[in-house]
């Protein structure tokens, strides 16, 4: 008989369930939006206007008007997302918060909510080695990170 | 003999200690697990200080972060999204406010009210977050149920869809239910087509027994007999079949009752889980007091936060839900969504399930 669970769950085997991750599933639109807001910090919302204007194309919903939530990451949706986040990646707000190159690692850490991996370090090195100004490099880094599967699906 | 007894006590106490020791997870596993939760509960990735907290406090950080996130500003929004996507209700159209259900969920969570109020609140909430009357015109209110949004989305013959949606969404069950839970209506009280059993179904319906499901469906559908297809309450509804239109439709845009007796079919009085009640509101109160309501709320919460498919969520075991439910009820007999979230995501069964989903510990 299993011992009674009394506050601390026991270390005997526990019932688990399957979480299938067979297909890529976006976070709900509002969550992706608040994740970006958390990176930006306080702002007047103008930087998010493109995202909001295109929210139905980006997987949001309006059930009363026949728009169902769509959480698949399609080529079209990726393209729309990349365009819609440009105001954010080119904004003085985010560049001021994460000045490049000194805060590049901090930006990635803040976006992903974890310590940097070797793959992240390699990405930062590739961006640093690429041609272009620091402004352009940050904008590229920002676009890549905010469009990544990790940012949009986790 | 004394030595044997001492040895037995030693072994037994060692076993008890081992069995009640909290499960230990690596920092990497904890970070992974909490990352899975932070977006849906806090609306953002883990912060640097949260990552440091996980490293410092290890497994104890789970509860600490859950408490912090559920006190934060995003949780009500998460509840709103959960309710909207669960019921497929949002927006406005044709003068009807389909945001009422989601806004009610957000209000309940913002104010840390019992989650049961999703079906028992005697008010609706407008877009400004203020209490307003709901919009069906009914003389009572039952949370999301007595909104035109719910009624219209679920409108259909015999009010079957309204009943089915209520049971599926809020107790995670489908008809037929256990007869010990939902006592079937006696055959003679039903209209003839629903008295049919497997031998006499013929080509009607799904070709198999009607009575098994409809004897229970009928009781719950009865609560909706006075709500027309536009979700408007009509006190004079008779529940009578309109002979000029298809089966299941009554007069004045209303739906037909399962019951044959004229006074019974016109009445909102019916039975929910063995209790005779006067109307939909009283039925909702009975439903929310069932253990199935809390277990279903836990299941729906897991499904929402971990973004599981409906079929995967359906497979979450009753044993796990029962354990979590038991833990919640120690603290509160009518828990808030905050309490549901905090207990649910501390359970090792949930943690292990996340860590086993294409990653591991």
Characterize this entry briefly.
The complex is a heterodimer of chains A (154) and B (361). Chain A is mainly alpha-helical.
Structure description:
The complex is a heterodimer of chains A (154) and B (361). Chain A has 154 residues and is an all-alpha fold. In chain A, 49% of the residues lie in helices and 0% in strands. Chain A has helices at residues 29-40, 49-53, 75-84, 86-89, 92-97, 104-112, 118-129, 134-146, 149-153. In chain A, helix 6 (104-112) runs parallel beside helix 8 (134-146). The longest helix of chain A is centred in the C-terminal third of the chain and has 13 residues, at 134-146. Chain A is globular. In chain B, 50% of the residues lie in helices and 4% in strands. Chain B is built from 17 helices and 6 strands. In chain B, the strands form 3 sheets. Chain B has a two-stranded antiparallel sheet. In chain B, strands 3-4 form a two-stranded antiparallel sheet. Chain B has a two-stranded antiparallel ribbon with strand order 5-6. The relative contact order of chain B is 0.11. Chains A and B meet through helix 1 and helix 6 of A and helix 1, helix 2, helix 3, helix 5 and strand 1 of B.
